[in-house]
Every structure is written in structure tokens, then in C-alpha cells.
Amino acid sequence: MKKPVIAIDGYSSTGKSSISKVIAEKLGLIHLDTGALYRGVTWFALQNCLEEKGTINLEVLFSSFDQIELEFKNDNGELILFLNHIDISKAIRSNEVSDNVSFVAKQKEVRDFLLQSQRSLAEKGGIIMDGRDIGTVVLPDADYKFFLTASIDERTKRRYHELLSLGIEADEQQVKENLIERDRIDSEREIAPLKQAEDAIVIDNTNLTKKETIEEILSHVKKI
Ligand code: C5P
Fold first, then answer.
1. Mean pLDDT for the chain?
2. How many domains does the chain have?
């Protein structure tokens, strides 16, 4: 039997990736956190494409795509992103990357550059992919689509504790502002904005634990 393709979209820090990871383990799927791809390109841009005033030069970035080699290493179903053979999984969580990623991700050239690698990973089925435009653009024919949301205060708390657990310094107010700003840019952009697919099941997990959110998703996957 062909394994399912599951799309999980939603607002920042609704737990999409950590929830997807557990579901992948339970159902024997692979998991791709597509936010890591946009963060990876942003990390590259911050290293290689800065102008004197410290802003990202988009023309330089767009002409550097052929210098970016993306590889995925399968770690028990979890696809870990390597960029030019470097494991950037921790570096892409930095505040600097978070502050710039939505600006980079709204560029058509960047989205085009990353689209094909996402789609080709889903060709054989058996994948859960989380992001902002998976159910609407990347995998519109996914077998199951979910859209996660939660209150801004709850999401701030989760992201703040996640950063501390990664050993990254954080200020709660700044974390909140970053989430609001990213959601705004992600929702308002012209190409592949953050939005709920018409056929997605919406889950507000403000008052749900991670375990409860996973159970809710699994109950639908079993039902359909
Ligand atoms: O998922 P995460 O919060 O790490 O994503 C970081 C950023 O990457 C998002 O705020 C958004 O700008 C961008 N992104 C996107 N499309 C996706 C996944 C992430 O534009 N499918």
C-alpha cells in the first residue's frame, strides 16, 4: 500500500515541526521541515550576500543559487538539511536568521529555487512535510492537509523556551514581535502566502498539549 503524503501548514511556533516528527515516527514516514530550507538560504545570504549597510543584496543572492548545494541526510526518518556539506541545523535557528527569513522567503526566485526539491521528495509518497504553503502550492494533492493555529501568547512561550533549550539567548518580547512580523510578511506576500488550504482541517492547539495535537491529527488520518 502506498504510504500517505501529509501536509501540515500553519502559523509560526504552532509546533508543526515537532508534531510532524512524532507523526512521521508513528506512521513510518519521512519528515521534511521546509522552514529549514528557507532558513538555510537566509543563512547563506547572511554569510555571502551582505551589502555594506548590513542588508541582504538580493541580486547577489539570486546569482549565487548555483553555489548552494542542498543535501538531506535521513536520520531515522528525519531529513536533516546540509548546505554545501555543512550541517546547519543549529545555525539556522539563530535570531539573525529568524529576523531575515521572511524577507528572503517572499522572493519569487527563492521560492522557485526551493520548490522542485520539495516536490521531488514527495514523489514516492510516505512523507509528512510542514511549512506555510505545502497544502496550497507545494503538494496541493496531498492525501491529508492540516492547518495549525494557536494564540500569539502561547506561541511566544513555546518559541522562547525552544530557544533557551537550544542554548540561544532570547528576550520574550522580541520573540513575540518576531513571530507577529513573520506571520504578517508570510501572510501578505504575493507568492504562496501563508494561508489555509480550502480542504485543510484546522486545529487550534492553544489549549492542547503536543500529545493531544498529535492524537487529533492521527484520528483524522485514520478516519479519512
Ligand atoms: O517553519 P519556520 O518558522 O522555521 O519557517 C521560517 C520561515 O520560512 C517562515 O516564517 C516563512 O517566512 C518561511 N517559510 C515559507 N514557506 C514554507 C516554510 C517556511 O515561506 N513552506
1. 95
2. 1
